[in-house]
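User: For a benchmark we're assembling, each entry needs the component sequences followed by a predicted structure for the full assembly. Here are entry 17's components. Please fill in the structure.
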Amino acid sequence: MDNNIILKTKGIAKEFSGVRVLNNINVEIKSGEIFGIIGENGAGKSTFVKILTGIYTPTEGKIYFNGKEVQFETPLDAQKVGIIMIPQEFNLINDLNVYENIFLGNEKKKRVFLNKKEMIRRTKELLTELKVNIPATARIDKLSVAQKQMVEIAKALAFDSKLLILDEPTTVLTRREIDTLFEIMRQLKSRGVTMIYISHKLSEVKEICDRVMVLRDGEMITIQDTDNIDEKEMVRNMIGRELSQIFPEKVAPKENIVLQVENLSSVDGFTKDVSFDLKEGEILGFAGLVGAGRTELAETIIGIRKKKHGKIIIRGKEYNIKNPAEALKHGIAYLSEDRQGIGILTNFDIPSNITLPSLKHYLRRILINKRKEHEKAAQYIKRFNIKAASLKSKLEYLSGGNQQKVSLAKSLDTGPEIFIIDEPTRGIDVNAKREIYFFINELVQTGISCIVISSEMEEIIGLCNRVAVMREGKITGILEGEHINEEEIMFHATGLKGVA
Amino acid sequence: MSLKSLIKKIDFEKYGSLIAFVVIFIISSFASPYFLQLQNILNILRQVSYTGIIALGMTFVIIGGGIDLSVGSMTALVGGISILSLNSAMKFFGYGYWNEIMAIIVAVIVSIALGAAFGSLNGVAITKGRIPPFIVTLGTMAIYRSLALYIGKAGVFTSNSYMYPELGMGYFLGVPIPVWVFFVMAFLFHIILNWTRYGRYICAVGSNQKVARYSGIKVDFIRFMSYVIVGITVGVSAVFLTSRLNSISSTNGGSGYELDAIAAVIIGGTPMTGGSGTIFGTVIGAIILGMINNMLNMLGISPYLQGTVKGIVIIGAVLIQRKRTQ
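Assistant: Structure for entry 17:
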């Protein structure tokens, strides 16, 4: 066998309760290359890497690592040979500090005692190698998302990883942080570390990967050198057709105002004197850098965070909203950016997730009318093109994009007048994004008013009627018409323009 | 391949307890010819009904991600006070058939209301005080027992009624009344868990509190109610326990009930982490515990060893759940 091949799979297939989600995957990954995997939601990317990391066992097929056949029963088996995954949701313990996390389960000892000195020294060494400036004794919960990611990478290196799998590593990073990450990846590559890189951001795949594999519906469509394939071609391979216009035509909102927020501040200080209004049928974008306080503003509006002062006026009437239940009652639904954490219940099936906030509409006297629930869920599945083995599938078996569609259906089923959507397309693929954009557009045409919080510039520009830009908890400007462009937004977001 | 894959395919959450039930049932029938006799089976059911009723309420608490260690002490305190109120009510109403019935009704109402009240004390401390359920109910376990000892002067509460034992010793259609109550309540609780908003919400709260809160569920209220519910089941159980012996001991009345109730829920397949579970499983879990005790008795094994076997069964049940989720 070729010595240069670090990982080879032969006919890998995976079935979940009889449904084949992955079929006949044959790849040969060269030592020291960065291998991209792209594909739509549910194309099988996650399933494939979960097989490589021992989280799932394949239904069929074989894996060879360094020329030897391997069988992983648990993630630990994969770690032992040096395959390590940096997951989207980090596996770090917030209460511990950096070096404790890096050596978690792998502690260095002096007889029976922990050798803290040695662990701190080694951690410093790893962090210096990565050229990141994080103290080895900082607590994890004090770190930014980008810093946490670096800690994950350092952890992987401490395990002497030979194959590093990065699942959507850039979704939560700013452009500058992405550049740093890529620099580190290139540096690792020069040291002979092989990497698998999963992303929806095709330009990044082209930038950083040597080769890219396209998956569609569990099948391997093609493997190409990234020099020989452009983004359009990637998309064509992913969806099997040309992608038509990604954003729908913008629709002018009505003149009447449904929501007025005046001088809103939160007790915790993340939201400071925010004022804006929302017209009926409008899509109002909220742009800003990560940490600008947009999610916190939304949470203050729906009563998760305590209001210090300010007014929230819905259709001319002032309300004091103290919790999400009251927000829902007054017609405000909030779809969180943190899908797994606060959006859906992974051990509930599709109908019970969708009807959770609107269950009172599914009662016959005091009993739940399950047939009505199922009928409604079936409608949403059809309307949103949700892919699932069955209606009764638990959410944990759905892909990220399909989970997002279920969350969308869930919020929508409360019959909101005002819909706050936080990062509507984070971590989902082009085709599902397009579906969601068109869907939001459909919503506003039925008279629902939307607030879209997004870190994706393209999305903000392509979708919104007006754009509020936030910085450090304040709105620095509300842009309209031709002022909605990348430059203006960045100026306001970074404080070069507007009052911060 | 064959047996291993077959075992892997079995949904242990759903059928694990049922399989264990069938296995133990078969073993017991071979172990003793007496086991299958109707009287013995009715005895087992009566034995398990006291803690079984509490286990029904405990199922909601555990599904909601909580625990209640105070149910045993609460049984003694509630039972004791209800006997005192029975005696006072009898004085108040005077002698006569209907007068005594009235007094018993008062005692039953007092018992259930007290159970609900003590349960709500737990619930308030847990939800408003933001104290972990384990700590709160550990504390109230000590408090309720000590109050029972104080009020009962560390002795036995004895009722003056001749009719009260009819409730605990009586039969309806050949089946002991507590067993009827256990099964009827199990049916009701099954409906509440699977077919009402409360049932759906308690699962949601146990599965992920944040998701539940963002979905507009009043998380604190839902959790609070689960402790009230288990309190009510303690009240019902205390009625049958006290009426069977026409008395209850303040020192060891209801002692160890928390263990049996929690064990029944866990053996029944409800995960300690909450989020899901079944009443059916809990009923089976309670009966399994009863069958094991019965079998050990019939085999002449020292009653002191029953706790050991019970402990092994609990740990084994959780072990199987672990295996399944991995």
